[in-house]
Amino acid sequence: MADENVPLGAMKAKHGPPLVVALFGLSSLCLANSAFAAGERVLTPAAGNLSLAPSRALNLTPNQQNLLSGLAEVAQLYAAVNHEAAGTKGLALIQQGAKPNDDLRLKIANSLAWTGRLNEAYDQYALLLNGPFDAEARLALANAARWQGRADLAKPMYSQVLALDPSNTGAREGLEYGDRDLRPSTTLSFGRSKDSQDMETRYLTVAHRWRDESGSKVYEVETRALQDRLDPAGLKLQERDITLRFQALDVAYEPKVYLNVQGTPKAAAYGGIRLKVAGASDAPTQVYLDRLNWGITSVSAKALNAGLSAIHAGIDTRQSFSVGEFYGRASVYRVSDSNTLLTTSLKFTPSWRPLGPGIKAYVATDTRDVRFNTANYWSPTQGSGTASVGLLAEWAQKDWFFYTAGQLGTPLYGEAGNSWSASAAAKRWLNKDYAVGVNLWGLSSRRDGANYRARAVSLNLEKLW
Question: What is the spatial distance between Cα 240 and Cα 227, in angstroms, rounded to a whole number?
Fold first, then answer.
């Protein structure tokens, strides 16, 4: 269910730790002092000397001389740990006809991967299979598949690496991480949120997730109990529902569908579908179509009490470039009270990491526009638009991760005001079967002509079977 009000940190923690996709766990790499990849030990490149294979041509054309000189410069950039430039220049030379030796091709692929260009890195790794760097390339491809949600594809590749190199630590750890994704899991969550408009929500959720034998079909059943209270109006509601989810990762568009059946306070059914219409798993474009419980989506006891629903159509995209990553989302909600809402979110995260690979700065905009105002949920008559700057940091080791983010906003138009938000998430694996986690979130903004504040906390216990 799409929920524009779910804080970013909390959403990521729910589905798994946030990814720094520019890291591949190759056996020839050294440990990073700050970076994060899917809740595991992080590896970064070790600079070293690179010898180019001597040309057999006695007479080189000017173009061949330029390509050979360019490859030598790529080797120097890699040795200087300038991976953004090494990846960009190396790929450009390959596209112009340069043929680097396997050693240099591996370094170009690593540079592309470490700067977030996984799709381009994937193509270069694939060219190294069945060669002298087969184990390194196969391990990188396995890690990429797993980080993109395809642990089912990663597992056999890890096994192939271990067949070539039984002592490969990266492959052994990769199998363990993939096992966490493939094994059935049950998660118990308890949470509480409260805002300055006297709205308080408490909830208890139990979710069980599993895959079929192939690992490409994902199933989930979730049941939830919520208590919403609105003071001083004295409105108090109890809600019970159950949700069924299914995703097919091995068919076109990777469809994900869900059905939500609500028992109280009013019997109703909701559901929707998500399709990946373009892009790779690390940079997808997805479309959504849902019928939502608007009281839950808008976090409003009044809307829940009124039994409001909404038809939601949305699209989001995530694209990686040499200069950084772009994320965009747009959603239209047609509420059952005849109101229409349009929300957008844009975010750009530069590749530049002056504070280290695990600390990212970003800029963002968020907008909300409505057809008319109502007291049942946040619906700014003049609209609301905010521009923000933020900073997020991620740290991880094999059995834990920690994420934190904060941002400051300034009004762009309408009823928006100065704002801030902060979130944090942490998860700790106690052993191979149990993990505990916590999510925290808070914000301050302007709503309905007054200062608005909200905060939330949730605790999670996960059991693998």
Answer: 9
Tell me whether the CATH fold assigned to 8-18+184-464 matches the one assigned to 44-182. Answer: no
For residue 53, pLDDT beyond 90: no
Please choose, from the candidates 273, 277, 307, the residue with its C-alpha nearest in 3D space to the C-alpha of residue 291.
Answer: 273
| Short-list 98, 109, 90, CA closest to 55 | 98
The angle subtended at Cα 71 by Cα 67 and Cα 72, nearest 5°, is: 120
Give the model's pLDDT for residue 147: 80
**Distance from C-alpha of 182 to C-alpha of 184, rounded to nearest angstrom:** 7
Question: Two tokens at 287?
Answer: 């479309």
CA dist list (Å): 311 to 338, 401, 447: 11, 36, 24
Return d(Cα 462, Cα 262) in angstroms, integer. Answer: 25
pTM (2 d.p.): 0.76
Residue 228 has pLDDT above 90, yes or no: no
CATH number of 44-182: 1.25.40.10
φ, ψ dihedrals at 38, nearest 5°: 55, 35
Looking at residue 341, its pLDDT comes to 98
At the top level of CATH, the class of 8-18+184-464 is mainly beta
Alpha-carbon gap, residue 135 to 114, rounded angstroms: 18
Query: By CB neighbour count within 10 A (0-12 exposed, 13-18 middle, 19+ buried), where does 129 fall?
Result: middle
Phi and psi at 20, nearest 5°, equal: -100, 90
**Type and span of the H or E element at 362:** strand 359-370
Query: pLDDT tens digit string along 326-368?
Result: 999 999 999 999 999 999 999 999 988 888 778 999 999 999 9
Domain-wise residue ranges, the chain: 8-18+184-464, 44-182
The secondary structure of 365-409 as a DSSP string is EEEEEESS--TTS---TT-EEEEEEEEEEEEEETTEEEEEEEEEE
Q: How far apart are CA 328 and CA 330, in angstroms?
A: 7
Output the CA angle 182-184-185, nearest 5 degrees: 110
Q: How far apart are the C-alpha atoms of 327 and 347, rounded to whole Å?
A: 5
Q: How far is CA 392 from CA 42, 193, 322, 355, in A?
A: 17, 22, 20, 11
| DSSP character string of 86-128 | HHHHHHHHHHTT----HHHHHHHHHHHHHTT-HHHHHHHHHTT
